[in-house]
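Quick one, T. Sequence first:
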Amino acid sequence: MATSQNQQMNPDDSLPPVEPPSAAFLVQLFLVPGIIVAIIVCVWLSFHWLAHLGNDPQAYVRTLRRANEGRWQAALNLANDLRGPNGSGLKSDTKMASELGSILDDEVDSGRIGEQSETLRLYLCRALGEFTVPEAAPALVRRVKETNDDATTQAAVEALAVLSANLENTGRSFREQDNVVDAVVDASRSTDSGVRNACSFTLGVLGGEKSVESLFRLMGDPASDVRSNAALGLARLGQTDAYETLSEMLSLQDVVLSNKASADEMQSERYKRALVVVNALRGVTMLVDATNQPPPTGVITLIKDLREDPVAEIRSSATAVIKKINRITG
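Structure tokens:
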């Protein structure tokens, strides 16, 4: 009887029949995970390629021309490589300079607006300024002359100053110096004070008779920053007429405590005042070096008083200028 019951309760009898796996099951088991792994690998390879884009300089150009997120990684890599140990080779690459200028032109001509487009235009202007070849200039000049966007115009003007200094340091110069100066002179009449301010600095770097004439005009600008930069530009060019505006800059008084101003506002005003005064002292130093003559008596008096200024940087700068003047006067 027991044997009969055991036969009736055999565990194998309670299991379902074994069937071969279906095609759908095999797809879910092998193919779907394989696709997922393939996607992960492709994504990793894409990031790996972007991260090593700097190994191929022309890859910068190809990627920057594409209106997608990959261009920002290319822009970052290019910026890093321009500053890196191999940056001198990139900065002297005439083909790359011309192609980046072409990308800048295309971006402006596209009519695209928005933060990303503006950021790209500003980036390309500044990147072109880092080069050491005159081929980087034409696109910047076009942006100064033809662009209605004040931010891009200002970036292009500033880049021309950097490019001019880079060219001079490598024994080169603009192929069409007058064309560059004329473009900046025209831009210096902009209604935007930021553009005029950039022009006042850049004209001091470019030099020449036209630049000097424009800087004299800009010393009468209603914006104090523009007047200051114009005076510094004239000082850089050895024009002693800059002493009048430099005296105004040296005369700025320390910020007076006010119950209405917050601590951050006070700190910001004090920083700005210190920056203006230190720049004025630098302008006096440039004029003394250029002329080998002491400044007017009134300017010397202002500088001597600054040796007791509450700002340490102003005190040390004023002391250094007085020592330089004393060496000249004996």
